[in-house]
Amino acid sequence: MTSIEFNHKLISMEERLERFALSLTSNREAAKDLLQETYVKALSSKDKFIEFTNFDAWAYTIMKNTFINNYRKAIRQNTIVDQTEDLYYLNNSKESTYVKPDSLYQHKEITRHIDALQDELKIPFLMHTEGYKYKEIAEKLELKIGTVKSRIFFTRKKLMESLKDYAVDRVSA
């Protein structure tokens, strides 16, 4: 395949590659950047393309691999490695210790509603909020896992109904 044929095939795929890039990134600008990076890699690797194979699949694979590599790179750059002797950064809370009076009141109100529940609903719910898995709760309380799931579900539903004044308005938020 000549360079002209190669370039023509690559350019003719632009619209389809751009749609694919948009499906990967969900952002028009990031999709254009990905498309441009794919073109650069395809052009610099045209000697690696094996003639009479699926050109489209080759180009899509370059784009997909570029997207994955960029994603992994972004994750690595956002990962903090704490190398201090006492793990200062990991143990240092970024949150303020100041508690607003209204949130303290809301917490007490929510706790009051939870405490008012029957033990058969309250205990599995509290265990779940403390981080126990459904299976662990079922084993500790000697219940079937389906029973645990339904009790937690009904407890959530009951609490949402009784605490609807504290619900976050998702439209205005």
Low-confidence spans: pLDDT under 50, at least 5 residues?
169-173
Write down the Rg.
Answer: 27 Å
- The number of helical elements comes to 9
> What percent of residues adopt helix (DSSP H or I)?
55-70%
Overall geometry: elongated
How would you name the CATH homologous superfamily of the largest domain?
RNA polymerase sigma factor, region 2, helix turn helix motif
Here the CATH topology of the largest domain equals: Rna Polymerase Sigma Factor, Chain: A
Just name the CATH architecture of the largest domain.
Orthogonal Bundle
Largest sheet: none
In angstroms, what separates the terminal alpha carbons? 56 Å
Q: How many distinct beta strands?
A: 0
Alpha-beta classification: mainly alpha
Number of domains: 2
- As a percent range, the share of strand residues is under 5%
CATH class of the largest domain: Mainly Alpha
Mean residue pLDDT? 84
Order of SSEs, N→C? HHHHHHHHH
What can you tell me about this protein's structure?
The protein has 173 residues and is an all-alpha fold. It has 2 domains: 3-77, RNA polymerase sigma factor, region 2, helix turn helix motif (Rna Polymerase Sigma Factor, Chain: A, Orthogonal Bundle), CATH 1.10.1740.10; 101-166, Orthogonal Bundle (Arc Repressor Mutant, subunit A). Helices cover 68% and strands 0% of the residues. The chain has 9 helices and no strands. Helix 3 crosses helix 4. The termini are far apart. The relative contact order is 0.06. Residues 169-173 have low confidence and may be disordered.
